[in-house]
Every structure is written in C-alpha cells, then in structure tokens.
Amino acid sequence: EDGARVLVDRLWPRGLRKEKAHLTLWLKDLAPSGELRQWFGHDPERFAEFSRRYRLELDANQGALVRIGELLKLGRVTLLYSAHDTVHNQAQVLLAYLQERAQRPAGPTDR
Predict the structure, then answer these.
(1) Is the dihedral of CA 8, 87, 58, 73 positive or negative?
(2) Helix, strand, coil share of the chain (percent; to 5)
(3) Within a domain: 79
(4) Which of 49, 36, 42, 39 is nearest to 10 (CA)?
(5) Which one of 40, 49, 96, 110 is at 20 to 30 Å from 88 when CA atoms are compared?
(6) Mean per-residue pLDDT over the chain, rounded
(7) 13, 12, 9, 84: which is closest to 54 by C-alpha?
(8) Segment (H or E) for 96
(9) How far apart are CA 71 and CA 23, in angstroms?
(10) Range of the domain at 51
C-alpha cells in the first residue's frame, strides 16, 4: 500500500494517461520552478546546487507545503515524479526536506 500518491512535477509526465496514474493529488506548486528545472536539466553534476536552490524555493513557498503536510498526518505519502534518474531528482530533495522539517521543533512559521 503506497498511501496517498502525489505527483510533484510541474509538467504532466509524457505518455502517462491521467486515469492510469491513480493519483491522489498533483502538487505542481511543490515542484521546482520552471527556471530551476531547466537550469538543472537532470545533470547529476548540478544536483548539489539544484538541491540547495530548490530548498530555498521550498522555504519561500510554505503555503504549498500545507497540503502535503495534511496528507502526511493521515498516513503514508508516495511522491511520484517523471525523472528517469531515481537518485538525482526533485522528489528526493523534497523527501529529505520534509523529513528534516518533521524532526525540527515547530516554530512560529511552522503551522
């Protein structure tokens, strides 16, 4: 059971029919900006910098994190993405970001 299935790509994956995706939610707003996505170009050598920049985008977009936070409170969430590289992609960065966020004490901006 993979729980809530959440697509975290800004663009719909090529060749995937919506009825076959079995998505719970498509959170485009959690995906990296188009500019950052194009700069990265799925180049593993740029991944560390991509990760740093994407985390800054997430820090500035706390509103987009509310919905996935609600889903996480209900149970398992599976992050879906279209990148072929299973290591160097936005879902891995987002997963680490969410795990780190869950471990730190709540502050005034973490509501």
Answers:
(1) positive
(2) 50, 10, 40
(3) yes
(4) 36
(5) 110
(6) 91
(7) 9
(8) helix 90-103
(9) 13
(10) 4-103
**In-domain check, residue 16:** yes
Tokens coding 73: 């409170």
Residue with tokens 């997963």: 95
Question: What's CA 15's distance to the chain center, in Å?
Answer: 20
Q: Report if residue 110 sits inside a domain.
A: no
Query: Is pLDDT of 111 > 60?
Result: no
Give the number of residues written for the chain: 111
Q: What is the number of structural domains in the chain?
A: 1
**Could you report the per-residue pLDDT of 19-50, keeping only the tens digit for each?**
888 899 999 999 999 999 999 999 999 999 99
Specify the pLDDT at position 104: 72
pTM score of the predicted model: 0.86
User: In this structure, is residue 108 part of a structural domain?
Assistant: no
32 burial level (CB within 10 Å; 0-12, 13-18, 19+): buried
